[in-house]
Every structure is written in C-alpha cells, then in structure tokens.
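Our platform keeps sequence and structure together, in a single record for each protein. Nothing more is needed to write down the fold, since each code stands for a local backbone conformation. An entry from our holdings is shown next, in its original layout:
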Amino acid sequence: MTPNQEISTNRFYTEFWFICLIVSVGLVSGYNVGFYAFRFADLIFILSIVYFLINKKNRTDKKLIFYYSLLLLYIVVRSTFDAQQYLNLLNTKTLFGMTMTYLTPIIFLVTRNSIFNSKHAKYLLYTACIVSIFSQLGLLLVGEKEASGTVDLGKLFNLGTTMTKVDLLGYQERTITIWRALSIGFAFALIFVRTKPIFRIAGIIGLFLQTAGGGGGRGGLLFVIVTPILLFIFLPNSSKYSLTTKMLIGIAGAIIFSSLYLWAPLGEKFTIKDSGKLVRHEDRAEEIFILFTEGWSGVSAKGGMNARTQGWEEYVDRIFSDQNIFLFGVGLYKGAAFMYTGNMAAHNMILDVWSLIGILGLLLFLIFNYFVIVDMIYLLKVTPKNSYEQVFIYSFAIAVFYFYQPLLFQAVTSDRSYMIVFFLLTGTLRPFANSLNDNQAHEVRLNA
C-alpha cells in the first residue's frame, strides 16, 4: 500500500467516527426526506457504500464479499416482493428503513479494510471516556438510552440530567452506545491488564462510574458477572496460573462487580417495571436468577427477564408453525414480526432476524457474526505480551462483548443506528490485528 492509499483509507475512517461523535452528542437531528426521516448516522452507511465501490484495491476477504452479495440479492428480492404486496405509506417507510438496516454489514466490509492501529484505538478510547462523562453530567442533548448501572453525575452536581430524554433524535442516540461500550471496556482493561497502579486506580474509578448507578438492567448484571471470568481466563499474562485458579479469581471479581452493581450506592433505589409497578432495582436485576431457582416456567409466569422467555417461546412456536415463515419470514415491512405478542419483537437477534427474513437471511446474518468472533479471537491471539497495547486491545474486545448484550436481550436488530455502530466497531478488529502482526514482523526483520 502506498502512502497516498494509507492516508485516503484513514480519512474514510476518521469521517465515520466523526459522524458518530456528532450524532452522539446531539448536535444534529434527523431530516424528513419525502416520506422518510433521514438520520445523520445513515451517512456512515451511505459513505460505506461509496468507499467500497471506489476502493479498487480492496483487500477484504473475498468470502465476505461473496456472502454480502448473497445478502444484498436476498434482501432486495425479499423487499421487492413485499413492496408489491403491501403498498401503503406506513409499510413502505418501514420496509425502506428495515432494508437499509439489514444491509448495514457493508460497514463491516469497509472498516475491516481500513488502517487501524494502537494510536487510533487510544484516541477513540479517550474520546469514549469524555463522551461518557459528559453524558453522565447531563451535558448532552440526548444521553444514553440504556444507562443501566451508570452513575448520574448531573444530579450529584445539581446540573440536572438528560439521560432519560431519549425521544428528541428518534433512535440516533443509539450511536452513543459505541462510546459507552469503549469506555467500560477501557475501565475493565485498565484493571485486569498488567498496568501501573495509577492506571488501575483510574480503571476502578471508571468502572465504579459505569456500574454503581443501579438501573435494574439484567443484561448489565450478566455483563459484569461474565466479563471478569472471561478476562482472567484469556489474559496472556495470567498463563502462570492454572485454569482452576484463574476461574476462582475471575469468579471473585464477578462477585465484587455484581455486588457493586446490585448495591448501586450512587443510583436510584427504585425502577419502574414494564407493568408500571415500582420495584427495587436489585429485585428487577435479580429476576434473571429465577431461571435457576424455579425453571423456565417460573421465569415466564413471574415476568423474569422482562418476560423475555415468554416472548422467545411465542416466537419459536410461531416460526415453526408456518413453513413460509420458517423459510422466508413475514417480511421486513412489519418491523417487528409478531406485534401481538407481549414484547412485539423477540428481543433476541436470532429469533428477530429469523422471523422477519427467514432461515436463509438468518444464516447470512450469522455468517457476519461468525467473522466478528473470528476476528476477535485473532486479535487476542496476536496480542503482544508485556505491552501497553494490551490495554487497547482488550478494551476493544470487551466493547464488542458489551455490544452482544443488547443483541441477545433487546430488539436492536430493528434499530439501524445500533446496527451501524455495531458493524463500525467490530470492523476494527481485523485491521487492528493486522497492524500488530505487521509491527511484530517488522521487529523480527530488524532483529534478524
């Protein structure tokens, strides 16, 4: 790659993240373009298409291009069929928006082909911390939509809060999720990766601000339980410990962080359940454990996990009850496949995608998630030992793991802004790993 090509590719990357920042801090709202409400975050999707087409020396895995071509063909044919069957303004608007949402993996192809290294990672992590602090202070037009666990600093400093004002920009505040994910990943990495004491203290403070606010989020509770265990198992610097020892230390960390999350010393003591009932946030969060104490039926009967299990049962029964739904789904024009169910959407990426675009669409969607997981494993595999870069690498890996929390428990596969930033972040893993490999190869040549 020539210097000019590198500068050009980096410029593309900078534009993506700059758009993300503008939308996250609430500087730009959406605009009505004919029947459709254009969101500023859509520029990331549009630019991805442009950059993919003009980058003639594309280094993207040819398999990915093939799979995306299949996805594009399938979605276009499926949407064309729906458009012919359901011609009214509301359905057309939903169909257009959902079609764009399910084609967002093009962002993954473009970012995966970009230049990304430790310097870029460092700048993005610092930006993430600043944006998260501003959100917690209530200084942004739109704060975090799902701020479960986050301390509301605005109230502590009598600045008020905007963390709950989530309707001003439609779904655009979802772009702030990328900064929340990176900041909480950074905090975890500073604690668990071998760093100076001052950095570990900074990580503890950061994680305290991200988890000590309560909120009752079940996904957040699972995240702070599972993350310490996985971290200590896979950290390269922990190889001197046996697997049993690593598990025990990880479990101890999980107990500490989950206790802090449930105690929520700087958060609201009550949260509103979906039924409108006011409950303690720890009781709402602990509903996930009903599954282990009373089984699947107990979870469904008592509304544990916000009746997720009941919704999953309804979706599974409906998908398998109709051969056409099983094979082709109900169509993207609906937005949510079975709106008569309790949660409307299944709140699970597999069931939501399957019910809307069928088994083939689901397989194509899972293929891109497969590449995400492969890229994450590869990044961790090439992580240099005893290097400050470990902090940045594990910050990004944890951030991606954080993104899967809503994918498994929320209706985010129908949320284009969320899918845009999901594929933007996950696309960084492979080029990040490539830069590490290039650096290591360069050092080997110098030492030869």
Notes: The chain has one domain: 3-267+361-447.
